[in-house]
Amino acid sequence: MDFNILVGGAAGQGVDTVAKVLELILKKQGVEVFSHKDYMSRVRGGHNFHQIRFANRPIYSHRETLDVLLALDSTTVEVHASRLSAQSVLIGDKSYRTEIGEGKALWLPLKEKAIEAGTKLTEGTVAAGAVLRLFDFDFEKVWPVLHSLFKAEIFEVNRRALEIGYTLVEPQFKLDFPEIQPRIMVTGNQAIGLGALAAGVSFYSGYPMTPSTGIMSYLADKMEEAGIVVEQAEDEIAAINMAIGASYAGARAMTATSGGGFCLMVEGLGLAAMTETPLVIAEIQRPGPVTGFPTRTEQGDLSFVLTASQGEFPRMVIALRDPEDAFYQTVRAFNLADKYQIPVILLGDQYLGDYYQTIPPFDFSSLTIERALAGEEVWKKQEHYQRYKLTEDGISPRLVPGRCGTQVVLADSDEHTEDGHITEAANVRVAMTKKRLQRLAYLKKETQEPWVFGQTDPEILLLAWGSSAGPVREAIELLEEDYSIGALIFGDIYPLPTKLLTDMKANVTMLINVEQNATGQLAALIRQETLIDCTHSILRYDGRPMSGQYISDRVKEVIASDK
Amino acid sequence: MTNEAESQKLFDSDDEIAWCPGCGNFAILTAIKTALLELNKRPEEILMVSGIGQAAKLPHYIRTNVFNGLHGRALPPAVAAKIVNPGLTVIVHSGDGDTYGEGGNHFIHNIRRNVDIAHFVHDNQIYALTKGQASPTTALGQVTGIQTQGNIDQPLNPLLLALAAGASFVARGFTGHLEHLISLMKEAINHPGYALIDILQPCVSFNKVNTHRWYADRVYELPKDYDTGNLNHALEQAMEWGEKIPIGIFYRVEKPTFADRLVWLADRPSLIDRVWEPRDAEKFMKELE
After folding, report:
1. Cβ contact A228–B271 (<8 Å)
2. For B77, which residue in chain A has the nearest alpha carbon?
3. Which residues of A fall within a CB distance of 8 Å from B79?
4. Shortest Cα distance, chain A CAs vs residue B168, angstroms
5. Chain A contacts of B52, Cβ < 8 Å?
6. pLDDT of residue B3
7. A240 is a domain residue
8. Is residue A274 domain-shared with residue A340, that is, in the same domain?
9. Which residues from A are below 8 Å from B272, CB to CB?
10. Interface list for A 242-301 with B (CB within 8 A)
11. Chain A CA closest to residue B268
12. What is the pLDDT of residue B5?
């Protein structure tokens, strides 16, 4: 069992609500859900859609072919009807009737029935009722979900709409429910937000920017209950500088943005590094340069974040691979930032940020908060505390101002002495530069090797990173019967872990980087760090996420062209 | 050494001062040290925050906690530090270029936030660290190494801007009236909320127009019976600039501070003392089920 429903319409038509109803009902039945949202940068009109895929086994990506197309406008029919197969069903109001989709279409009186239910706004709910009937859903299990989504009066009208929709069609598909496992349904942005809460973030400053805003709105929603501050800054420059100030003062602090906002944060990134102030920054990529495609996806900022800000300093870059990974890596990022007193960048993208996936609940008992702050042993022993004391391991004991007796804590963006005062001394400059860069060696030891999918000693090796993990995993599943193929998915990306890549490369004849960008930025990094060249590239940069099928098709093309 | 002599040294820093002899910053340094001593403050409870410029070096010359950040960006880390640790007395020292030029956006919006900090702007009407270019407060027509035909951009009036943005404490001082400046600083530090003092000071090296004499001839202290609670008077008074330049507290009202508005934190410890385990966040997973 593996079905795919597309719900499409204009912004403001309730596409999100219909999708939410279906997603939750499916999830509560115990099926695995992967729901991906494609939306335009506008509040009304345009064409938006959700693709809700569900199965009785874990699924890791959206897919191209549709089983049900639920159209809330005629544009949805025009754009997506070509994705229907002979067994698929199209549901739409009879006013959308076109030649396209004939034979598969059920043109229903959705608009009339919506008015009958109480308001024309329930057109989508009537259609959702019809969809539930197509799959012969047990209606009794639907009401609790509907109750959780709608307030009393709105619940009533939606209940009527759903019931009316249910009577309009006959069952077409057979469901095969799995045993119900504990599952949560979560987006990448929610997972980052919850990870930050688990890690003890107490100060978040940010400026709204699609597609990163979900992190901020998630945290703002929990502000009161968690007892934290989420402040909307006047711009991204303020956002990062506030987070740095809060961190210097002793709070766990974070900011998030997308590429354009990160451009404004770049000097602040250097400030965190120079002052050795721990900081976690989530950069949720969208296609650039500048405004680009505000609501779409790309992996175009890797090279940028690797070198952002002038000068040389240690940073850690972690690409988030799926919502589960996003949660645990966010917690890890806070601990690494504190341990090494550095900025850690979490690299996500619109695809990961916005899609919903059912996954096992997060294991909070496995998590720890490691602040790595120095204690009394430092400030009581030293007559004169030095924030940037040159130590053997290059990491100076860090104290928090106002929490270390009569000692004071100096942080400085200028090159500074061990005390934290401005200096222009050549020898101090060299010592401080070495001290900062010494951490790169430790970070290398901390790095986690990439995930491996498929064969571990393959002839064809795919290299990908971040949110491509799920689609590549599904591509491998599609290809591994016919080919000797495997994949490495990088999460920790800087410093780059190279052991698995070097080991697995032995018998590889085709090394293919699979990336959502135009220039192959992972391939460039691998070349820079290991002198290993990819032999082929699969690159997509139209702002639309790759599916497993898409990657599988491209791999076959590459193999064919190579012969 | 007597106790008094010892206490005079309480805020002394061992860092070498890099200002030009005769710089107005020396008076500001004396004033802030005196103000802190008179307020019975301790170095460890003070956080001095600055950006870049000659004014921004001041925190190095006084023994307190210091965050010396980026040009124009002193306010964001300062307010954030105060938000997470309200126990700190947070004071920002920045110049006219740093505050009103590079940091103009933060200036406006931190007035709106009204975080309880004091902001001392060393206003010498020139960029000094970069050796003499027009700042946002440089007079129209003044010739500099960049404004070679005279400054063609109208200077802004920081007091008027602060008042218009809703500041709860707006004052102007002058380095030539030291006792007056010390008392302004004490009032600003004690004011609950964002307190601005625009401090007129000569730049002996790069501003040959607005000299100590130039200011001294024009400056007068607002009379004792001046009503600091009247915004219309304050706006009018702030517009006086030329042959006569008023100094003193133009406007002072009590408004809810940023911390006052964080009602959900009212009975909790400061954010840096927050007790939290990863498991405390587990409850937020419920809504994802």
Report:
1. yes
2. A245
3. 242, 245
4. 19
5. 413
6. 66
7. yes
8. yes
9. 202, 249-251, 400, 403
10. 242-246, 248-251, 253, 267-268, 271, 275
11. A227
12. 67
Do A122 and A215 reside in the same domain of the chain? no
Is there a contact between A412 and B66 if contact means CB atoms under 8 Å apart? Answer: yes
Q: Do A404 and B281 touch (CB under 8 A)?
A: no
Question: Is position A175 within any domain?
Answer: no
- Measured from the Cβ of residue A444, the count of other Cβ atoms closer than 10 Å reads 14
- The answer, as to whether pTM is greater than 0.90, is yes
Residues A54 and A193 in one domain: no
Using alpha carbons only, what angle is made at residue A482 by residues A480 and A486, rounded to the nearest 5 degrees? 30
Pair A427, A317 in one domain:
no
Q: Shortest Cα distance from B246 to chain A (angstroms)?
A: 32
Interface residue A373 vs chain B (CB under 8 A):
no
Average pLDDT value for residue range A425-454: 98
Total number of domains in chain A? 4
Indicate yes or no: CB of B44 within 8 angstroms of CB of A251.
no
Q: Note down the domain range covering A423.
A: 376-446
- How far is residue A34's CA from residue A23's CA, in Å, rounded to a whole number? 9
Are residues A106 and A47 part of one domain?
A: yes
- CATH number reported for the structural domain that contains residue A33 in this entry: 3.40.920.10
pLDDT-derived band at A235, boundaries 50, 70, 90: very high
The number of residues making up chain B comes to 289
Residue of A nearest to B108 (CA): A234
Nearest CA in chain A to B264: A224
Task: Please write down the HEC assignment for all residues of A194-247.
Answer: HHHHHCCCCEEEECCCCCCHHHHHHHHHHHHHHCCEEEECCCHHHHHHHHHHHH
Q: Going from the N-terminus, what domains does chain B have, and what CATH number goes with each?
A: 11-288 (3.40.50.970)
Same domain? For A115 and A31 the reply is yes
Among A534-538, B108-112, B206-210, the minimum mean pLDDT is found in B206-210
Distance from CA of A21 to the nearest CA of B (A): 14
Residues A65 and A207 placed together within one structural domain of the fold: no
Mean pLDDT of the A398-410 span: 97
**Residue at a domain's end among A418, A446, A474:** A446
Q: Which residue of B has its CA nearest to A365?
A: B279
Long-range Cβ pairs for the range B177-181 (8 Å, 24+): B177/B219, B177/B221, B177/B247, B178/B27, B178/B30, B178/B31, B180/B221, B180/B247, B180/B248, B181/B27, B181/B28, B181/B31
Rounded to the nearest angstrom, the minimum Cα separation between A194 and chain B is 7
Spell out where B130-206 has E strands: 169-174, 195-200
CATH code of residue A327: 3.40.50.970
The mean pLDDT of chain A is: 95
CB distance B80–A249 less than 8 Å?
A: yes
Q: Could you say which of A114, A139, A166 is where a domain stops?
A: A166
The distance of A403 to chain B (nearest Cα, Å) reads 8
pLDDT level of residue A46 (50, 70, 90 thresholds): confident
Q: What is the CATH number of the domain that holds A465?
A: 3.40.50.920
Has residue A428 been placed in a domain? yes
Residues A212 and A154 in one domain: no
Cis peptide bond N-terminal to A497, omega within 30: no
Domain membership flag for residue A174 = no
Query: Among A67-81, A201-215, A417-431, B97-111, which is the least confidently predicted range?
Result: A67-81
> DSSP E strands: which ranges in chain B?
46-50, 65-68, 89-95, 118-123, 169-174, 195-200, 219-221, 245-252
